[in-house]
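Support reply, case 0932

Customer input (verbatim):
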Amino acid sequence: MIVKEIMNPEVYKISEKETIINAFNTMHDKGIKRIFVEDDCGKIIGVISYRDLVDLLMNKNLHELLNMNENIKRIAMKDVLKINENENIKDAAKIMIHADVSALLVVDDEDNPVGVISQTDVLRSVIKEK
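Our regenerated output:
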């Protein structure tokens, strides 16, 4: 089975100029676990997970929390792990396990984002095959 057969075609993005609290609110409102950070040209330059934001917020004191207008670009993970949409889902699983991440950005042959594949997507596919 290949990645594009089980991926989520929705790629949620936020501008690198958005604040940390806006990223948190967007993820919370949309019920998503990660959001990709894009520059002014629309190029994805990072990713931030809900877990990353919760960890960050838990390590702040009340004064810092009240001033969460800091740019998302500073804390977004810069190395966005990608996989081509035509790769086998086993390869996606191997990358996620090796890198200890819960999802990968899915790209087409021109490196354009076309979706996201998560550990949950892979597990669902395994269950469906049985």
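We compared this against your earlier run and they match. Two observations from our side: Helices lie at 3-6, 20-30, 50-58, 62-66, 89-99, 119-129. The first strand starts at residue 13 and ends at 15. Please reopen the case if you see a mismatch on your end.
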